[in-house]
Write the C-alpha cells for this entry.
Amino acid sequence: MCRVCGGIVNEFFDFGRQPLSDTFLRPEEIEHEYFFRLAVGICEGCSMVQLVEEVPRDRMFHEDYPYQSSGSARMRAHFEQTARKFIETELTGADPFIVEIGCNDGVMLRTIGKAGIRHLGLEPSGGVAELARADGVRVRTDFFEESSATAIRASDGPADVIYAANTMCHIPYLDSIFRGVDALLAPNGVFVFEDPYLGDIVELNTFDQIYDEHFFLFSVNSVRTAAKRFGFDLVDVERLPVHGGEVRYTIARAGARPVSAAVESLAEEEHERGLTEQSTFDRFGTDVKRICGGLVDLLRKLRAEGKRVVGYGATAKSATVTNYCGIDSELVEVVYDSTPAKNGRLMPGSHIPVKRAAEFAEPYPDYVVLFAWNHAEEIMAKETAFREAGGRWIRYVPDVEIF
C-alpha cells in the first residue's frame, strides 16, 4: 500500500536480502547484523516510487550514524551557497527563523548562524548532532514530525524557511512531516527540500541510489501530487548537479505563491520520458541485472589475471551494489574511505574491510571500483598519482567501464 495515498504499489525490482547501508561492523558484531528485503515499486495512483518494506528509523539513525555532510569539499561549497541564497531571498525580514530537518553536522546552518540569523537544526543521530553543536549550531536531537514541529512553534515561533537536504527521501511518514510543516511554517514561508531525482536515477542507471535510507525516489509529478494532498502547492523546482543529479523542490501553502513555469515544464518532460509508467521501470530492472552481471564478470576476470582490485568510498550506495551483485573480499579486497567512523570496520553485508584513504598508496592497486562515483571529480583530482602510476578506475553507472 502506498505510504502517501494508500494506493496499490506495483513492485518492479527486488534487490533481495540487504543490510543497513550505513552500519559498519566490527568483526564480533557480524552474527547480529540486521537484514531486510530491499524491493521497490511505483504507486498506481500517485506515481510515487517507494520501497516495499520499511526499516525502523531507530535502526538507521542513531548515536553512531557515520555519515558526515562536511566530508566533501564540493558539498561544503554547495551548502554554503544554499545558505547564502536563503539569506538573500527568504531570510530578509525582521528576526527571520529557519529550521533544517536532518541538519547532520551543521554544514549548512553554520553559515546561517555566522550571519546572526535564528536557526534550529533537527538531527536524530546524536554523534553528528554533537559535531554541529561544537561548531556553534543550535540543534535539537530529535526527529521532525508533527509533535516536534508543534513544540518548536510554541518555543520559537513560525519558521520562514523549513529546509531539508537528502533527508525527505528517508522519511516514510510524509503525512506527519506535512502536518508538522503546516504547524510550523509562517503564512508566506517556504518548505524547501532537495533529494536524488528519479529521472536521473532511471536515465543514468544509478540503481545504487536505492537502499534502506532512500524510502522514496521523488519526481516532480509525485511531489506535486503529495503536496496537494496535504494542502500545499509545489511552486518551484530546480535541477542540481550534486549526488548524481538532484531536484530542489520549493513548497508553499496553497495559493500563497505563484507557481513557476519550471514546475509544469519538468512535469511534462517526465510524462514524455515515461516516469509515471510501469514499463519504464521494468526496463530499468533489466538494465540493473545487465550492469551487475557485467561488473561481476569484469572483477572475476581481473582477479583471475592476478590483478589487485580495491574499492574507493565506503558509501551507503555501495551496500546495494556489493550485496546484490555478490561482491565480497575475494573480488574487491578492501575499500578505502576518509570517514574516521568507518575505518577499521567492515562493509555492510559483504564484510569487505574498510581502511583509511591515507593508506590507498601503500602500495597502489591495479584497479579501483569507484563506489563514490558521485564524488568522482573530487576524488580523481586528489588521486592523480594513482593514475600516473598506471592505475585504472572502474565505474558501473551508467554502465560498466574501465577508465
In short: The mean pLDDT is 95. Residues 278-304 form the longest helix (27 residues). The longest strand covers residues 185-196.
